[in-house]
Amino acid sequence: MDVRQIETYQAVMTFGTTSKAAEVLGMSQPAVSKAIMTLERSIGFKLFDREKGRLTPSAEGQLFYREVQASLAGIAKLRSSAARIRDYGSGDIRVACLSAFSTNITPRAIASFRKRHPDIAVTLTVAASSVIRDMVAANQVDIAITADEVETTGIEVAPFVNVPAAIALPPHHPLIAKQLIRPEDLDSIDFVALAPEDTTRQEAEAIFAQHGVAPKVIVETAYSSVVCALVLEGVGCGIADPVTAVGYVERGLVIRPFEPAISFRTLLLFPPRKKSRLVQEMADMLRAEAAKMT
Q1: What is the spatial distance between Cα 80 and Cα 57, in angstroms, rounded to a whole number?
Q2: Is residue 176 located within the same domain as residue 254?
Q3: pTM
Q4: I want to staple 129 with a disulfide (CB 3.0 to 4.6 A). Which of 21, 105, 146, 235 is the partner?
Q5: Among the ranges 20-34, 49-63, 179-193, which has the highest mean pLDDT value?
Q6: What angle, rounded to 10 degrees, do the helices at 59-88 and 3-15 form?
Q7: Same domain, residue pair 131 and 149
Q8: What are phi and psi of 45, to 5 degrees?
Q9: DSSP bridge partners of 58
Q10: Where does the HTH lysR-type domain lie (predicted)?
Q11: What is the residue range of 61's domain?
């Protein structure tokens, strides 16, 4: 018993004759009749009573047909699923991003993606870049945004966006009077710093060293959003990602450009396998939203 025989049997039941079933299936009438007889031999009972060349479903055949309908509905679903996987990959997509992009670019890209693919589930994980990198390497995430300090061996990497860094200032801070912040302005100033492994912090510290200045580090954090929150509370000044800072500016945080320019550099990460169409579309949408904000 195989699927082709079952489909031939369904056609005969649906259209009433082997000749009509043959026409619909694109088979010869003898081939249809042979498929039905082969199926009967394999299941051990007659599906049709044959009288003067006419086929009438037997009692056993009618019972069997109910099961056939349910089974073929399942097969049709399998074929549909297979076509979707072939064209788009799995029925869900797993996204991860660093905190800086978790409240702006990534949610907007996911919203656009869901409008185009309402039946595709999306999972979003927000974590530190190093954690996300390991998730990508373990094939636990389909696409991710991280800072550029992550180890890229064994995964696929593409540049994402470079965002010019700025200096975040508490409300009423004396440096607000300046329209441009320079290294000497930050000497001995209470400072909220990014984590030591952050490449933006390393770039800033190299500039501070060149100018012979040293901000007074009060707190260290891996997240630009936490820098903004601490600065807003008056803990100190800090280097911040302007994209992340938007929501805090509405609450009173002040942003000033910094010179010499430094940047937050980010990457798109993918597992080391062929990307599905869904993943490619999500990547395009993330890039489109990033372009709007930068």
Answers
A1: 30
A2: yes
A3: 0.64
A4: 146
A5: 179-193
A6: 120
A7: yes
A8: -155, 160
A9: none
A10: 1-58
A11: 3-88
